[in-house]
Amino acid sequence: MDAVNTQFKWQEATGEAKYIADRRYEGVLEGRFYRSSCPRGIIKSVEIPSLPTGYHLFGADDVPGQNTLPIVEIDWPAFAEKEVRYVGQTIFLLVGPDPKIVEQLLQKINVEYTPQTPAYTIPQSKYAIDGPIHGHDNLFDSHVLNKGDIVDGFSKAVTIIEESCDTGYQEHIYLETQGVVGYPEGGKVVIEGSMQCPWYVHHCMAVVLGHDKVRAIQCTTGGAFGGKEDYPDVLAGPLAVAVEKLQKPIRIILERSEDIAFTSKRHPASFQYRTGLDANGKIVAMDINIDINCGAYLSLSGIVLQRSITTATNVYDIPNVRVNGRAWATNTVPTGAFRGFGSPQTCFGIETHLNHVAKKIGHDPAQFKQRHFLTTDSTSLTGGAIFGDLVLDKMMTRIEELSSYRRKVDQYSHHAKNSEKCKGIGMAVFQHGCGFAGDLEDVLVNAKVTIIKQSNNQVHILASNTDMGQGLSLTFRKIVAENLQCPISMVFLDTPDTEKVPDSGPTVASRSIVIVGYLLEKAAKKLRAAWADSEHIEINETYRKPDYHIWDQQNYQGNAYQVVSYGVNVVEVEVDMVTGQTEIIAAYGVFDIGKAIDEQVFKGQIDGGMVQALGYGSCEKMELTDEGIFAQRTMADYVIPTALDVPTIESDLVDNPYPYGPSGAKGGGELTHNGAAAAYAAAVEHAINRPFSSIPVTDEKVFAALKGAEQQ
């Protein structure tokens, strides 16, 4: 039985780990995609060169099952057949022994298109020139959520403030690019690769091939951040067709420029706020419009939109709210999962807007926000009761102790106007619902785990959740070992292989610890009670949602998530008032994740998540050209923070144990990305006294704002 035991040997850190590109397969062929060069059009004709012996081309006509990638909805074809919707869409897969010859042959394929007018942005999608890309109005999904009475709320307002906020694309830049290898074994098509969700890949192969004689195995994965949730299906569908036909091993490893150009990204989002305040400066009503750019196919956008809608008011108790959310089809790379899954966009929008509202009415932003915090007695945006204790005020006290936020706000507000460099400090408060939205954990996922005690007393964990660098191979084993009261060296986490492990759901949505870890805790307790030396014992556990968790999917009412984690970030910056160059001089975070399974592991999540969010807020710019491709396609022009750009991060945890999590733990991996971008933008605003309503707040934007102020 294959197993992973990382107590003494950290293979990733030492360089001993074998990623998919490092593995050797005898007689392996190389696969390369022929991709669309047209952003939107009808395929008019195809010219294919004569292929040498040993080289093979696969397309839509070769699919034995359904020519579709079953990512939530059945709309994204494995191979484009009649139309193309974005530059980079897969039309063919070319396979052969020599990658150089494969590349030469790809250049000889010629596809002619009848082009149609593409839509790259949400406004262009609304115009739908040359007809809609999808449906009759380019809307993949839409929903309206109401709390209270929005009309009555605005009737009580004496001040109404309106504002728009926007966020852009973000690229994952995982350490390891996308890669998979497929081969025949035991009458099955097997795909190994860098992936988050082996059972997703298993299901995709089964649909494309038309049978379930398939198997997916996760290899050592060098980072994912959501980018290897949906996109491995895009590789696996065509690859499975080729492997079944040739009965030979085939490898597809993307080059970094190809990965950046064509894989999924974070959704660009646009927020429009209309906020009403009473005579005491209290928010009485808020009307919110949310639009997200989904790209050419739905993929995971409907679920991202649901999270955006249900968390639109963040940690704030607003009595009367209307949220109108829409997911738009465009002719760009389909946008998909990215750490936070819509929450970083939503957090930036609401935190920035409330900062601006507070300033316009002469209030301190932090105090203004704290006046509006949800409490344990509040009703959530979706009408659900708050389960457990909210400790937001306690977290505010702790972040003040760490950062001296209020003292520095006053200190930096009084810098000399002619200073060459000015400091600023900003704060963001945020949350993240753990697990899938609504009741999907119960009605759709229904996670299962197995723990096996072998006759030699070794204990094996069987679950489909994957370690992508976040430490799951340690924390799962720690949960089981502590509940068995045995050494962790006796506990092994088996390789996520769909032939061996049950479907415990995907490694997404901050669900691994709070959902699957809790199942492992319950299974371990049962195993301890049944323990008998030298006997083989197997314990199975299946998810059952807590009784308090009630959700109405049709009306978006109830507990939007099983449990919610919370955070506060503070960021300090220093801005060169001549050049606009901004340096991050300090960053702080306080988090409520229930009780950490391993504080050292979660410290890594904090540091990594905040750095990734600081890049999102400051420098990670992706722009589409008029041809529908990203201008930034290499790591030379897509800029991410380096170790030299980020200071030491000071952080702390506030214990608030959750009774339905292992040892009281909640989820937290995505939470750590949600707030720092908003805090960074607020800090730059504070330093230069100019507002920003979109991210990234690049040095060029800061320079332009300073020049605009100078001219005024």
**Overall pLDDT level:** 96
Low-confidence stretches: 4-9
Helical amount: 25-40%
**Biggest β-sheet: strands ordered side by side in the sheet:** 4-8-2-15-12-13-14
Tally of strands: 29
Beta-strand percentage?
A: 25-35%
Number of helices: 18
Structural class: alpha+beta
Instruction: Characterize the largest beta sheet: strand count, sense, and whether it forms a barrel.
Output: 7 strands, mixed
User: Distance N terminus to C terminus?
Assistant: 71 Å
Output the radius of gyration: 26 Å
Overall geometric form: globular
Report on the architecture of this protein:
- The protein is of the alpha+beta class and 712 residues long.
- 28% of the residues lie in helices and 26% in strands.
- The strands form seven sheets. Strands 4-8-2-15-12-13-14 form a seven-stranded mixed β-sheet, sandwiched between helices. Strands 10-18-17-16-11-29 form a six-stranded mixed β-sheet. It has a five-stranded mixed β-sheet with strand order 1-22-21-20-23, covered by helices on one side.
Outline:
By secondary structure, the chain is of the alpha+beta class. It is built from 18 helices and 29 strands.
Q: What is the topological layout?
A:
Elements: E1 3-4, H1 11-14, E2 29-35, E3 41-47, E4 56-58, E5 69-71, E6 73-76, E7 83-84, E8 90-96, H2 99-108, E9 110-115, H3 122-127, E10 139-147, H4 150-155, E11 159-167, E12 179-185, E13 188-193, H5 198-209, E14 214-218, H6 231-246, E15 250-253, H7 256-262, E16 269-277, E17 283-295, H8 301-310, E18 321-329, H9 343-360, H10 365-371, H11 392-403, H12 405-413, E19 421-434, H13 440-445, E20 448-453, E21 459-462, H14 472-484, E22 491-494, H15 512-530, E23 537-542, E24 551-552, E25 557-558, E26 563-576, E27 582-592, H16 599-618, E28 649-653, H17 676-688, E29 694-695, H18 699-711
Parallel strand pairs: 2-15, 11-29, 13-14, 17-18, 21-22, 27-28
Antiparallel strand pairs: 1-22, 2-8, 3-7, 3-9, 4-8, 5-6, 10-18, 11-16, 12-13, 12-15, 16-17, 19-26, 20-21, 20-23, 24-25, 26-27
Helix pairs in contact: 5-6, 9-10, 9-17, 14-15, 16-17
